[in-house]
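REQUEST FORM: STRUCTURE PREDICTION
Request ID: SP-0412
Submitted by: Lab K.M.
Chain count: 1
Length (residues): 276
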Amino acid sequence: MNKQNHITVFEHEKRFFNLKDEKEKQIHEALERYHGNYTPFFKLLRNGVQFNEHVGVIQIGKTTIEVLPKTDKSGEEKWRDLLIGMIKTVWGFDVKSTGSSSLKLKSNSILELYFELFISEIEYLLHRGLIKRYRKNEGNQTSLKGALQFSKHITHNLVHKEHFYVKYTQYSNEHSIHEILFKTIKLLAHINSNSLLKGRIGALTLDFPEMKEIKVNESTFKKIVFDRKNQHYQTALEISKLLLLNYHPDISKGRNDVLALMFDMNSLWEQFILVT
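STATUS: Completed
RESULT:
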């Protein structure tokens, strides 16, 4: 873990920033902007913030702020391990891997846990083979396959007699599920700062087929219907949803994007008790 880019605090703790230091000033400004979008995870103080009962991680640019639970004076590592263990238990992560049955890294934060879970899932999907689906397309083709769209054919091909404007169905791996996963791979390539994961993410950008750029929101994921053919995609898509919907790009300077994965500790503890 890069200590210079890692800040650890505990729930309900206050964290003040030295605004004469450019890096700390940028972190403080990013937190102020993020708070302006309404975040329940902390409240603003003069030159600082105070966290509440939410625990997890907030990444700002390449800096990670880790918020850990704490009920006594034990060290950071104990509570980090406890939090990661609770999340694994509550969400029932069954990590698929083509080479081993466990994660390759000892996760130093929740963020790294989710990054590696996602990477392992995509590696598993690529090894198993990506599913294909029928997709409706429309456009110019050099052969008459599908239904000729006569009016559009005349409009587009008055000069190019060798083309046919048709509506056709294509069996392809280009569909919404893969577009979401590809977008998540690109996000990880942009925000990951763990050198041990960099090579695996780079391999995914090469091995996963390129998809068109899409915009995602809550409704994007609600439209996905799971069946026996795509059930094994569910974990990867759940992590995609968590990462994509909690990512807030810095549109002002482009250097301090915010990704927040935070959990209400009281709710997390209740769920942990229920499943153990």
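NOTES: The CA atoms of residues 3 and 63 lie 10 Å apart.
Reviewed by: T.R.
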